[in-house]
Each structure stands twice: as structure tokens, then as C-alpha cells.
């Protein structure tokens, strides 16, 4: 429909539309790109998952009046997770929520270390149990937490994200490849580069897993702020703003 629209150009359209209350209503006709991502340490604990279709809904944003119809959920604020690791199905089912609206499509991901993805039906979603989500500790800027240092693989540190029961620590960092670009989302960070995820045991500081992914269009920090733990051993980190490609960590709990 719009052959010249890339994700980066679409994000600029959304940025310009935010002042008019149109966040989450754009990106119609924009084909999401699949970032280049790889796990360099901890395969089986950390994987890259790709959800083939964008998260969509027919629900309007909270307090907004829009024309009926399907729309993309841009900048998801929360991952919704159902199912239970270790159950007979050994799958977790994911959806997202943004601006008061929930996605109406869902995906199941295996937790056997292969991170296989398949569409999940409405019946599967409705029948699956909601995974508990304890209140997590606050994000921490830098690489210091509880008197310990947790290095990041990137040149610039963004934040530390402890797990809800403080068993694990995720360190989010990046290395930019261009000059910082002013942005209401990224805070003046480089708009291109490589983002990194490092996972540690919080007590021993043993590094458990590392992943890296290319990014382009907005600062890595604007994507990192959507990273979220589910329970104490499942972490989802989006790699771009549509949250179609993500790092998914499923860590062993003692």
C-alpha cells in the first residue's frame, strides 16, 4: 500500500502524531523489519523469538475516539503471559498491552530451550492460566546494584533490571554507530548501533547469557524501557518498537 514506508519513517510519523493523541494509531501499511540478533552465550537459556505478525487490536486506546478497525499496537507497555513452564504443553503464551488495549492475537513459545513460536488460538489463550507477576524492583541506571558491579557488553550502559525476587540481574547496554539523535523516546542516543543483553546470577555475579542485536531508527534506551520480567525466571526484551522480535530468557530457578 505504501511501498516507500520503512519502519524508521513510520516511527517518525508516529513521533509527529503523538502531540495530536495519535500514538498507537499509525503504522498501517508499514512492514516491520526483522532485526539481526544472536545469542553468544547461554543458548538454551536465552533465545531470539520472532512473532511473524504485528500485535493488533480492534480496541481503541483509552480515552481516544478512533474509527473502527484493526490497528497495530505500537510501543507495547506490557507483555501478558499465560501458561506455565514445566506443564504438559511446556509453552508460554504471549500477548501485549498498550494504551489500555490488549492484543487480539497471541503466540505460544516453547520453553525447552528451542524457543519455537506458533500462533495460539483464542481458546488456548482463554483457557491458559495467567503467570504470576510479582512487583519487580525499580530499574537502575548504570551497572552498580547492591554494592556489586555487573558489566555490560556495550560501550554505553542503559540500565540494570533485577528480577522480581532479585535472583537474576539483566544488564542492558548499547554501542552506537552514529551521532546521538534528539528524540522524545531515546533521549538523544545514537539511532543506530548494537544493543546488548547480559544476564547474571545476582548473588555470585556469574554471567549466564549474552545476546546482541542491531537496531536502527530510535535509541536503544527507548526500546529497553519495555523490558520486563515475568515471575522470577522469564525475561522478555523487545528488540524494536513493535515487539515482534525479542530476546526471551528462561532461567533455572534453584
Can you walk through the features of this model?
With 254 residues, the protein is mainly beta. It has one domain. The protein is built from 3 helices and 18 strands. Strands 1-15-14-13-12 form a 5-stranded antiparallel beta sheet. The N terminus is likely disordered.
Short descriptors:
254 residues, mainly beta, five-stranded antiparallel β-sheet, 37% strand
In short:
By secondary structure, this protein is mainly beta. Helices cover 9% and strands 37% of the residues.
Our count of domains comes out at: 1
DSSP E strands, number: 18
Computed structural class: mainly beta
SSE string? HEEEEEEEEEHEEEEEEHEEE
Blueprint of the fold:
Elements: H1 7-17, E1 37-41, E2 46-50, E3 56-57, E4 71-72, E5 78-83, E6 91-98, E7 101-102, E8 106-110, E9 117-120, H2 122-127, E10 144-145, E11 148-149, E12 156-162, E13 168-176, E14 192-201, E15 207-216, H3 220-224, E16 228-230, E17 234-238, E18 245-250
Antiparallel strand pairs: 1-15, 2-18, 3-4, 5-6, 6-7, 6-8, 8-9, 10-11, 12-13, 13-14, 14-15, 16-17, 17-18
Amino acid at each position: 500500500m505504501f511501498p516507500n514506508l520503512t519502519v524508521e519513517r513510520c516511527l517518525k510519523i508516529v513521533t509527529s502524531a503523538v502531540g495530536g493523541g495519535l500514538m498507537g494509531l499509525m503504522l498501517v501499511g508499514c512492514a516491520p523489519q526483522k532485526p539481526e540478533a544472536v545469542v553468544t552465550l547461554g543458548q538454551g537459556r536465552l533465545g531470539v523469538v520472532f512473532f511473524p505478525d504485528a500485535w493488533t487490536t480492534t480496541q481503541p486506546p483509552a480515552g481516544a475516539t478512533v474509527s473502527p478497525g484493526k490497528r497495530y499496537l505500537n510501543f507495547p507497555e506490557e507483555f501478558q503471559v499465560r501458561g506455565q513452564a514445566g506443564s504438559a504443553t511446556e509453552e508460554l503464551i504471549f500477548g501485549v498491552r498498550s494504551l489500555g488495549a490488549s492484543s487480539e492475537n497471541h503466540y505460544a513459545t516453547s520453553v525447552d530451550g528451542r524457543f519455537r513460536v506458533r500462533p495460539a488460538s483464542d481458546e488456548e489463550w482463554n483457557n491458559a492460566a495467567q503467570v504470576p507477576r510479582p512487583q519487580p524492583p525499580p530499574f537502575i541506571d548504570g551497572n552498580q546494584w547492591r554494592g556489586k558491579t555487573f558489566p555490560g557488553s556495550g560501550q554505553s550502559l542503559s540500565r540494570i533490571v533485577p528480577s522480581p525476587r532479585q535472583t537474576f540481574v539483566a544488564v542492558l547496554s548499547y554501542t552506537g554507530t552514529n551521532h546521538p539523535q534528539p528524540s522524545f523516546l531515546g533521549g538523544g542516543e545514537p539511532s543506530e548501533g548494537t544493543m546488548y543483553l547480559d544476564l547474571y546470577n545476582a548473588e555470585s555475579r556469574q554471567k549466564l547469557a549474552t545476546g546482541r542485536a542491531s537496531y536502527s531508527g530510535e535509541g536503544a534506551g527507548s526500546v529497553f524501557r519495555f523490558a520486563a520480567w515475568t515471575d522470577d525466571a522469564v525475561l522478555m526484551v523487545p528488540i524494536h518498537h513493535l515487539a515482534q522480535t525479542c530476546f526471551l530468557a528462561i532461567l533455572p530457578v534453584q
